[in-house]
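Pipeline run #58 for the internal structure catalog. This entry was flagged by the ingest filter as a single-chain record with no existing model, so it goes straight to prediction. Upstream metadata was stripped on purpose; only the residue string is passed forward. Reviewer on rotation: M.T. Logging verbosity set to normal.
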Amino acid sequence: MPQLFGIDEIDLGRRAGEFGQDPHHAAAVVRATLTRDADALPKPGKYSVAQKAIHHAFALVVLTAICTGAAMLLRIDTPWWKRNPYVLGDGTWGIVYVLHGLAALLLITMVMMHIYFALRPEKRLFTRAMLRGWITRSEYAEHHDEKRWQVER
């Protein structure tokens, strides 16, 4: 079961220094992107700044949808509680509905973007790595910083 969640790969002692480098790495990526200098773009560790950002964005949007959806459930009768539409004021309910709708729209848009970027020809190796669970040694050397992501094999 730990392998299912990747827990066996976590070595906090070895990776502790990597977490401190993330803000500097992200700043270097932004600087290289804004100046359109592809040569200055640093290689990522295991995951790029964009992959980490999309992960955090998905988590935030899904949590927003779950929390607002749970609040909206208070307005209907269920076997577990009686309907209580007066838990929140009218203005607050408006905010809850708007946040829930925006979260739904963002989630659909983000899934479409995720699929689009996964199917782009220059990103096919990442899609294959996600599906099969491995990359070649040359792909590793070309796309990843060996100091930030050290593999055992």
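catalog note: DSSP finds five helices and no strands in the chain.
catalog note: Helices lie at 12-34, 49-73, 90-119, 124-132, 137-143.
status: ready for reviewer M.T.
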